[in-house]
Amino acid sequence: xxxxxxxxxxxxxxxxxxxxxxxxxxxxxxxxxxxxxxxxxxxxxxxxxxxxxxxxxxxxxxxxxxxxxxxxxxxxxxxxxxxxxxxxxxxxxxxxxxxxxxxxxxxxxxxxxxxxxxxxxxxxxxxxxxxxxxxxxxxxxxxxxxxxxxxxxxxxxxxxxxxxxxxxxxxxxxxxxxxxxxxxxxxxxxxxxxxxxxxxxxxxxxxxxxxxxxxxxxxxxxxxxxxxxxxxxxxxxxxxxxxxxxxxxxxxxxxxxxxxxxxxxxxxxxxxxxxxxxxxxxxxxxxxxxxxxxxxxxxxxxxxxxxxxxxxxxxxxxxxxxxxxxxxxxxxxxxxxxxxxxxxxxxxxxxxxxxxxxxxxxxxxxxxxxxxxxxxxxxxxxx
Length: 383
Description:
The structure is a single chain. By secondary structure, this protein is α+β, with helices and mostly antiparallel strands. The protein has three domains: about 10-140, Pnp Oxidase, Chain A, CATH 2.30.110.10; about 150-295, no CATH class; about 300-380, no CATH class. The chain has eleven helices and 21 strands. A hairpin with a 7-residue loop joins strand 5 (about 95-100) and strand 6 (about 110-120). Helix 8 (about 300-325) crosses helix 9 (about 340-355) and helix 9 (about 340-355) packs antiparallel against helix 10. The radius of gyration is 23 Å and the shape is globular.
């Protein structure tokens, strides 16, 4: 008789399926009950993995010592201790971590899985100062098994770095934003049957302002995983709206395929003239193909250094966009190119990259000038 389990099939046969209730607890973002538990917890265990194996590090402080930056990002101070820095060393080599939050006397616990990085930004260190002592680093934990964030950075032949578009992938997303009219996006809840077994890709422009989303399933047949989206609306790219005025929206299906060399992106674009949310004419249909290839011939060091210096700043910017969308949607009060927002945020990012302080409230000032809640804009239009 076999007494050792050696296959997943044996394990599954022994335990059966997990309970639906336990599966529903695993979410791609922090909801209010989870936030409340983190804010009340005086103790968390940080698990990391490195060349020498696994490490579990206990971390304790006053309740709420782990700061919630947004519903995908946590900040954990590294208090002065014995200087073994096992967990920190692991994070530098492998950013995958897990957190277990506990509250004495409370039967509930909270697990958070994600990717971590070590940040030394002065204002974040000052935020965690206790009795005149600030931590040397803050551990920033982001992402989850059901979310992937891809930030595109362009590196010129001379080493100049440009922050480009970003794409977020969320498994069985509960909602997504949708382009509905010029400079206008609405947040739409997604029914479970729309997203079961599917990933939603949302794409953001260089300022992290919204662009478009699509939802679809990955097909893993034939050796090359391929994801195909549903059709959704998106604004024109800059290369088109600067030279064309006979259409103002694209109705698009996207396809991404992972290849042995990188990945490919296929676009099926229908060019449409819209008045608000009403289609008044269709001009033409085009197909685009992009082939992205992995390379070792380029020095990407400048991109890594830029992102190390500015990532916490852009995390704050993303949190502002997320809050603006959470109200139901947003309207950009700028020309169609969005340059007032792009220029203002990139000016602040450059200060952070150079090690200069960014004035408190500077990001909020940009949003106050140029971003309006959709509900307020619609109410104004109806008067």
